[in-house]
Amino acid sequence: MDRRRFRIVLIKPSHYDADGYVIQWYRSSIPSNSLASVYGLLAECAETKALGGETDIEIEAFDECNTIVDAPAIIRSIKAAGGGFVGLVGVQSNQFPRALDLTRQFRQAAIPVVIGGFHVSGCIAMLPELPPDLEEARALGAILFAGEGEGRMEAFLRDMAGGSPQPVYNYLADLPGMEAATFPILPREIVRRVAGNYTSFDAGRGCPFQCSFCTIINVQGRRSRYRTADDVEAIVRANVAQGVKSFFVTDDNFARNRNWEPILDRLIELRERDRLKIRLMLQVDTLCHKIPGFIEKSARAGCNMVFIGLENINPQSLMGTKKRQNKIWEYREMLQAWRRAKVMTWAGYILGFPTDTPATIARDIEIIKRELPIDILEFFCLTPLPGSEDHKKLHAAGIPMDPDMNNYDLEHVCTAHPLMSKAEWEQVYRDAWKIYYTDEHVETIIRRGVASGLNAVKIVDSLTAFSGATWIEDVHPLQMGFVRRKARRQRRHGLPIESPFVFYPRRAAELSVAGWRWLRLARRYRAMGRRVLAAPSAAAYMDEALMPPAADGDALPDFVHAFADQIPHTHGAPVLHKLAS
Ligand code: B12
Ligand code: SF4
User: Fold this and answer.
1) Residue 581 pLDDT more than 50?
2) Which residues pair with 247 in a beta bridge?
3) pLDDT tens-digit profile of 326-359?
4) How much distance in Å is there from the Cα of 376 to the middle of ligand 1?
5) Longest CA–CA separation in the chain, Å
6) Are 388 and 322 in contact (CB under 8 A)?
7) What number does the ligand 2 atom closest to the CA of 210 have?
8) Which of 188-197, 226-235, 532-541 has the lowest mean pLDDT?
9) Distance (Å, whole) CA 417 – CA 355
10) Closest atom, ligand 1, to C-alpha of 114
11) What is the tens place of the pLDDT at every residue in 489-548?
12) How far apart are CA 123 and CA 218, in angstroms?
């Protein structure tokens, strides 16, 4: 029997920096779960011989955040195989211009290209017609894949191999169940390109809340769909077998995964009975501490870091974006509950709500520093992401938004603000990092961490990365990696390729400056860490943020009183009097 080859090359695109170079690193810092998901689905098709016994499906995967994509080599490999396609995976809005540039190169060589991910899904879910960039992709001959791939890959592959794919696959109205769904996995050599040797999986999808800036609920739905404990165990064991024991659980809100308890119980068993030294990073909401046993079990299951969508401390801003579940009077208690479980807290804070001004933002960050025991705080600009209700409303009302999708990375301002000019808003984003990560506050965070029994080295390293990312590398920490790479010839479509005599000397200077700054920052923070640890009273450190909660409403954090007149009279809200300022 003649054997045939069908070669699939998966690329998770990155996006462009301000000079039009791809943002990529020698080692990236966070693994791509989208890439792992699509790889897992296709690997299953390869194993089950989805294209018939005589066809070998070959899969290669690249995360552009840590690998320079060699398009000519990929074209040659697909042509040599005699068939196949390039899949651009998990493409977010900010990555769509890069995805289009890659598409251009592959389509010029007549290689089929399929684009999936949140930009395609979000736009198709929320807009009445395809936006210009999706039209451009179509005009280049790319196939668009909207919705989730679980349960659809076999039929899709047959279409691709048969040479008669549909121009647009739309599964948005048909969300697949996740019980017994194929699980995300990447070969070890790809995971190794992520610093810290950890990988990711989603234990569930969907979130019951309704935040207006969120795209997730409009693509993955509001009903909790979840994996079984057996499947989570299988994912963990498959990774442990290849030496990977740390996991970023990418559920946007693991606290609302309706199967959280059996999943955590199983992970606890793996750690405590089978002695698997697994580590987890979870994403949760601000009410998770109200779920009996959730925090305690998360910690026992290996969670040592938790991301919390705090978003803002002003109730008016939270209500304005339908983030009603964020109750500011619960914040301190929730953060302290995680600290008691020895889990480091990492919170997201959004800048640019309608009532925000540079002065209120600076004031609110100072309040957080003083009153809330957060370890890592990261900032985002409120952005009308395609796929969100905010974007849909602005689009329908014809309100101008930045047409360049490369800017939808939550670090750029993409629409107008009622009280701040674009320049002010951009400045306030840059200033926010400086206001939070002062040396004085960094030392306070380390003190609080040591007093709470958290891992001091982990805190110091995380503080170094988060405080240095924006000013040293000019990228958000979530996009950062180790040692920036720039490929001279991989520049945004339409920009000139620079002369090597200009490019390389500048690169050498940039790398040395960045290296020197990182070294100095790391040494400074490490010295702080040593100083704090050496202090005889380190364990007894106490400040307002660490003060235990009191049942008495008057003992709530001061900022809750300060916002008293904006707290809605909803269930559980304290009755307060505004403090005289
Ligand atoms: C984990 C995660 C990250 C991780 C890893 C990225 C990744 N994609 O894995 C990190 C921390 C790096 C990250 C960073 C950012 N992220 Co993020 N991230 C997520 C998160 C929570 C999970 C992604 C995931 O695994 N989803 C599950 C997979 C299975 O879904 P999927 O990607 O849609 O893929 C399925 C289908 O689309 C389809 N499919 C996808 N590709 C392909 C390709 C082919 C060929 C086929 C056939 C099918 C197919 O099949 C897949 C399996 O069902 C999502 C929210 C979410 N719930 O998805 C946000 C999300 C994707 N991120 C978002 C954003 C904005 C960002 C940042 C810009 C924010 C920031 N400043 O930090 C950065 C971008 C930097 C970067 N270089 O990536 C937005 C994107 C919205 C949009 N319209 O673009 C999301 C949706 C969250 C949100 N706020 O709304 N992110
Ligand atoms: S809590 Fe998070 S995932 Fe849920 S709707 Fe709000 S932003 Fe989206």
Assistant:
1) no
2) 199, 280
3) 777 788 999 999 999 999 999 999 999 999 999 9
4) 22
5) 86
6) no
7) 5
8) 188-197
9) 9
10) 45
11) 999 999 999 999 999 999 999 999 999 999 999 999 999 999 999 999 999 999 999 998
12) 10
C-alpha 102/C-alpha 105 separation (Å) is: 5
- What percent of the chain stands above pLDDT 70? 96
Specify the pLDDT at position 342. 97
Residues enclosing ligand 2, CB less than 6 A? 207, 209-211, 214, 216-217, 252-253, 285, 309
**What tokens does 427 get?**
């400045």
d(CA 157, CA 8): 10
554 contacts: CB under 8 Å, gap ≥ 6: none
For 115-151, give one letter per residue: b (16+ CB within 10 A) or e. bbbbbbbbbbbbbeebbebbebbeeeebbbbbbbbbe
Give the side-chain half-sphere CA count within 13 A for 63: 29
User: What is the average pLDDT score of the chain?
Assistant: 94
How many Å apart are CA 201 and CA 260, to the nearest integer?
14
Which residues sit with their C-beta closer than 6 Å to ligand 1?
14, 30, 32-34, 37-38, 65, 87, 89-90, 92-94, 114, 116-119, 121-122, 145, 148-150, 156, 202, 214-216, 220, 250, 252, 385-387, 409-411, 476, 478-479
The whole-number pLDDT of residue 562 equals 76
Secondary structure letter of residue 551 according to DSSP:
S
Q: Each residue of 24-50: pLDDT tens digit?
A: 999 998 889 999 999 999 999 999 999
d(CA 357, CA 424): 9
For range 286-293, the mean pLDDT: 93
**From CA 435, how far away is CA 553, in angstroms rounded?**
30
The pLDDT, as a whole number, for residue 552 is 57
Structure tokens at 473: 């590398």
Q: Is the pTM of this model over 0.85?
A: yes
**How is residue 491 annotated by DSSP?**
B
103 is written with which tokens?
A: 């598409």
As a whole number, mean pLDDT of residues 211-240 equals 95
CA of 322 to the centre of ligand 2 (A): 10
Distance CA 24, CA 63 (A): 9
CA angle 290, 294, 300 (to 5 degrees): 150
